Amino acid sequence: MRKVIFITIALIGMCVRSQAQESPSPLPADRCVMCRTTPTQTAALLAQMANVGIFDGNVDRHGRYHPPHKADYWSKIRNFYKPNGDEAGDREGFNVHELGRKQIYFGISLGVNAANYRIVHKPFNGVDTIKSMRPALGPGFNLGIIANWQFHRYFDLRLIPALSFSDKSIKYTTVLRKSPDVKQTISSIYLSFPLQLRFKSDPIKNTRIYVIAGARYDYDLASNSNTRAQTLLKVSKHDVSVDYGMGVMIYFPYFIMSPEFKVSQGVINVNSPTNGYIYSRVIEKLYSRTYTFTLNLEG
After folding, report:
1. pLDDT tens digits, residue range 232-249?
2. In the listed set 37, 63, 78, which residue is the last one of a domain according to the structure?
3. What is the pTM of this model?
4. Consecutive H or E run containing 50
């Protein structure tokens, strides 16, 4: 037993000595562990970069920009769009959300929209008063509240409940001599609940490009589907659509501004037929379609 213990201790000692002999000698105290340059070499490199206008100060020996922690207001504005080389340690260059230090944040959404219908015609029997019909875009605007969950460096899950106003029109051409062209307008006030998944690119200075995709449920507060009038185009209270679009995230020191364009395409029929009404009986199905430009402010 003693021989076994002695042999084991001897083998451990031989391994330790061999590893100590194979390990490289430490670098001199004045040489950087990362780039293996001396302060003299680094100073010459930074001077050369300053001469060609790449950096104007606040640069470490590896060429990474570090904004001053305490700087005057105009210095922060002047240095805002400088690239940030060390996202883990810098605070002034990128917004706190870019550094991944805040997973959940909120904001507001302001936008304008243009909406119409995609129409599915009933089969033409050749004796109807309506010769043709076509959808027309109508104006609108929306206001929403953003709840964003940044669960990954490149992905966000977003819930944006909103109040949206929109007008959709259908233009008819009839055989009547007194009124050959007729325009029917349907005004809607939606409570919208979109759920979106956002994929973001790598940072380009203080901006990121992204694409979005998701689904949306709309409840029409101004729906006239329950009215008994026989001279109205009626639409359902409920609508479901798919959303897709793209935008740009612009990071400011205390908030994110994101101009965004998206398209919403309805997937359920919202037509509520009015029996006997000539402008309703030629319509088989109606699907909503909305084009929205939004300005998102998050922080």
Report:
1. 888 999 999 999 999 999
2. 78
3. 0.66
4. helix 39-51
